[in-house]
Structure formats: structure tokens, C-alpha cells
Design brief:
This protein is an all-alpha fold and 231 residues long. The protein has one domain. The protein is 65% helix and 0% strand. It contains 15 helices and no strands. The chain is globular and about 50 Å long. The termini are close together. The N terminus and C terminus are likely disordered.
Length: 231
């Protein structure tokens, strides 16, 4: 009952947002919870055989250039990690390892703000399939963090400050700042984007707040949602 188990975490984050005066963010979290509940209801009757093909359909859509599918596929959501390491023997795993980093860079080039969050997590942590695939790099991690700050304003560091990376050197910091400014102009036209959008853009398949990505538990296709609606 994945959705229900995350509700205390979600409630705490909403309460914190309200206490800090971030009412729009708190409302976005409530909307995410409602979206996920609707997904659970719609998934309850999806045949198991169709759910089992979810990963293949996701890859197909991602390779065709569908932006959200590209993000989810790059994030490793084609695999269900709840059964241990069975995904390592999947014939789709090696293609994903080759395609995921490139796919995520393509999503960034398309101006998808969610890609910034995923790239920061990938370079700055080892949580989740994508983060385990991409070697930690303090300069790149800080560059994507600074890009988030430029895009999102004061909310960026709080939203993206969950990951522990090796402290960059002063020279790496300098290059990270330069890279973030270049990326902000190239991929986003120096636009400011709402601080919650980087996480909310992947709703509703992620659990509330996208914590499945942070905790290394990608959501399965309709399976958890369907179970949540029946529990």
C-alpha cells in the first residue's frame, strides 16, 4: 500500500511548507496526492498482462521522443526493483544503461526542468538506478544544483539539498557556476521556473514528492497504484 505509506511523509512536508509560508507549494503537494489517488482508481482494473508490458511501452515512447516517457525511462522506471536484483538479468537492462544518460541529456536540451533534478541526483548521490549508473561528480552535481537555483530561486537549494556529494574544489565551484549560467541560457532561455515544478512534473506515477526516486524505489506500472486503491 505504497500510496498510504507515504502519506505521513507527505503530510509532514505539507505542514512544513505551510509553516514556512510556501502555500503554493503546499497546495501543489495536495494536488499531487489527489492525482495519485485518481491514478490508483484508474489502474485498479488494468489487466496484469498489460502492466507487465509497461516497461516495453515506456521505452518505446521514450525512444520516439515523448518527453515525459524520456524522463521516466531515464530514471529507471521501466524496472521494478522491489523483487531484489532480478532486473539485472532483464534483457532490457543493458540497453537502458546505454540509453539512459543520453536520454536524460536530450530531455534537458528540450527544456524539461525535471531533468535538472534527475541529473543533480544522478551526479550527487547513489540512490536509485540512475544515480547508481552515473559516477558521482562534485563539479557536475554542483553545476546542476546551481542551475536549479538559477531557475527556481530560493526554493532550489531546499528542494535539491537532499544529496551528499564530495565537496568541490574552488576551481570546480567556479566552473560549476559558469556551466550553470550557460545551461540556464541555452536550455531555458534564462527563464525562472516555479520551484515545485521540477518535482511535480513527474506526477502522478511517482509517489508523493517523488520520494520513490530519492529512496531508490521506482514506481511500478499501475501495480502499487492498483493495490493502493484496493487496500
Amino acid at each position: 500500500m505504497h500510496h498510504e505509506s507515504n502519506r505521513p511523509f507527505l503530510a509532514k512536508r505539507m505542514e512544513q511548507a505551510e509553516e514556512e509560508g510556501e502555500l503554493a507549494y503546499a497546495e501543489a503537494l495536495r494536488q499531487r496526492d489527489a492525482d495519485y489517488t485518481r491514478l490508483a482508481l484508474s489502474c485498479a482494473d488494468v489487466p496484469a498482462a498489460l502492466r507487465e508490458r509497461g516497461g516495453a511501452y515506456l521505452r518505446q515512447a521514450a525512444r520516439a521522443g515523448e518527453p515525459e516517457a524520456m524522463l521516466r525511462y531515464a530514471d529507471g522506471q521501466a524496472f521494478d526493483v522491489r523483487d531484489g536484483y532480478a532486473y539485472l538479468s532483464s534483457p532490457d537492462f543493458d540497453p537502458w544503461r546505454r540509453e539512459a544518460p543520453v536520454m536524460l541529456q536530450r530531455a534537458l536540451a528540450m527544456g524539461r526542468p525535471e531533468a535538472v533534478h534527475l541529473l543533480y541526483a544522478a551526479y550527487g548521490s547513489d540512490d536509485g538506478l540512475l544515480s547508481s549508473l552515473v559516477p558521482n561528480d562534485p563539479e557536475s552535481a554542483r553545476a546542476y544544483q546551481m542551475l536549479a537555483v538559477r531557475m527556481q530561486g530560493a526554493g532550489g537549494p531546499r528542494l535539491l539539498g537532499r544529496f551528499d556529494v564530495v565537496k568541490p574544489t574552488p576551481e570546480q565551484w567556479r566552473r560549476a557556476i559558469e556551466r550553470s549560467a550557460e545551461w540556464h541560457q541555452r536550455h531555458f532561455g534564462s527563464r525562472r521556473i516555479d520551484s515545485a515544478r521540477a518535482l511535480d512534473g513527474l506526477a502522478p506515477l511517482h509517489d508523493p514528492l517523488g520520494s520513490s526516486n530519492i529512496q531508490g524505489e521506482p514506481a511500478a506500472f499501475c501495480d502499487r497504484a492498483g493495490n493502493a486503491s484496493r487496500d
